[in-house]
UniProtKB/TrEMBL annotation:
PANTHER family: BIFUNCTIONAL UDP-N-ACETYLGLUCOSAMINE 2-EPIMERASE_N-ACETYLMANNOSAMINE KINASE, ROK (REPRESSOR, ORF, KINASE) FAMILY. This is Unannotated protein. It holds the Pfam family ROK.
């Protein structure tokens, strides 16, 4: 069977997944993570990724392609533009070619949130759905859109940044340089600040215990997410909207707030069309999506609704 490798680079870990397609169904045959050793700088990290690709090629001789998910912005040739959460001089660093040379296989790079979206659309919470949008809550807020089994990248190759909609014109400044984006209103820091806790996870535990301040925090954050996702409904009318990130996987407190507010606001559609669900693939979603993107590069058919 032909296999595909995905490497998901994070500030702490590199997540590794190997997948293959058996009888029209994608299967995960390996999941592993290692330290990214990001403190040693770009060259060390890219060498580490290249070595991991080579090691997995040796382990799986029928490996057909490699996909790499990265936490930032890059050019079409794999030159890094912005890695906000990794130390070192990444801007202008060529990160793709050394990984490709390590295996001489088709190798593709994708933003980590887009990888997450692709994974959940093809193998996760939105399996079999035609149009999928994802909203991934963490230190930042990532997003993505999949249409007919393909990541929608747009003319700029950067489409899918759902959290960079302006939802509150006089809202806080966003890290992207724009005022009023959904991201600073809905990220994990916003949840913790509103709840009066150190972390978003602590806020969730307090909310489960009935703490009024924590419950109010999730109500407010859910409100702003619902504004952003109601806009997405109006533009794309996705079959499924997937919510990811640590807090989003903890239970229905946040999701129920999102659903309730969207039911008030998304009046162009029947309420049954609003399908907001938690992600299902967990820690390795980014690496699975990276592997799927590698498969696209190698010409694999991702799903029964996709011709790629």
């Amino acid at each position: 069977m032909t296999k595909f490798l995905g490497l998901d680079l994070g500030g702490t870990n590199i997540k590794i997944a190997v997948i293959e397609k058996i009888s029209d169904k994608w299967q995960i045959i390996k999941e592993e993570d290692v330290s990214s050793e990001a403190q040693h700088g770009p060259q060390h990290v890219v060498d580490r990724l290249a070595n991991l690709a080579k090691e997995n090629q040796q382990q799986f001789p029928d490996l057909a392609a490699v996909g790499v998910a990265v936490p930032g912005v890059f050019n079409a040739d794999g030159t890094i533009e912005l890695f906000p959460n990794l130390p070192g001089p990444w801007k202008g660093f060529q990160a793709l070619e050394p990984i490709r040379k390590a295996t001489n296989l088709p190798t593709a790079m994708i933003n980590d949130a887009r990888a997450f979206t692709l994974a959940e659309a093809i193998m996760g919470a939105a399996l079999g759905k035609k149009t999928v949008a994802c909203y991934v809550i963490g230190t930042g807020v990532g997003g993505g859109v999949v249409i007919d089994g393909k990541i929608h990248m747009g003319a700029t190759r950067g489409a899918g940044e759902i959290a960079h909609q302006i939802v509150k014109a006089d809202g806080p400044m966003c890290g992207c340089g724009t005022q009023g984006c959904a991201e600073p209103l809905t990220n994990s820091a916003a949840i913790a600040k509103l709840a009066g806790t150190k972390t978003a996870e602590e806020a969730y535990k307090n909310a489960v215990a009935g703490d009024a301040k924590a419950l109010a925090a999730f109500k407010e954050v859910g409100f702003w997410i619902a504004i952003a996702l109601t806009n997405i409904m109006a533009v794309l009318a996705p079959d499924t909207i997937v919510i990811g990130g640590g807090v989003a996987q903890s239970g229905d407190i946040l999701l129920n707030e999102i659903r309730a507010e969207m039911n008030k606001r998304a009046n162009l559609f029947p309420k049954s069309a609003i399908n907001v669900v938690p992600a299902t693939l967990g820690f390795y979603a980014g690496s699975i999506g990276a592997a799927l993107n590698g498969a696209i590069t190698a010409g694999a058919q991702l799903s029964l609704i996709s011709t790629t």
